[in-house]
Amino acid sequence: MTTQKEYPMTESGYKQLQEDLEYLITTKRPEVVEKIKVARSFGDLSENSEYDAAKDEQGFVEQDITRIEEMIRHAKIIEDTDDNNSVQLGKTVTFTELPDGDEEQYQIVGSAEADPFEGKISNESPIAQALLGAKLEDEIDVPLPNGSSMKVKIVSID
Known about the structure:
Blueprint: E1 7-9, H1 11-40, H2 49-73, E2 75-77, E3 92-98, E4 103-109, E5 120-122, H3 126-131, E6 139-143, E7 149-157
Parallel strand pairs: 1-2, 4-5
Antiparallel strand pairs: 3-4, 3-7, 6-7
Helix pairs in contact: 1-2
């Protein structure tokens, strides 16, 4: 018996997934169906690149719908705690790199809503793994992709 993967996420991440799913089903899917219909009207499907591209796009859209439905079905909403002394899932962590003092800030979220460009990192990432459970003012070693590590000091947890 396999254990079903849970997808931890914030309430806003859950709502965003629902909006994404709604868009795919009500807007994107009908657009792709229309593209297929138009491409079919061009005739011979064996050498119809527009038809092939539209069918490929349909496959990607259906795959995205299935993936998002799975995440929503097995979502585990992160409960916000008032504990700002310890790094937990859903919290925003600010730390400074030692010794130079460059400051960085990330919200630790589930993999379903991770977006490094928005400052949201997956709880499964090496940096989040190093930060989780750490306390305010702790100095910890964060592993880097090249095998080395950097020392950071946690300056705030929100």
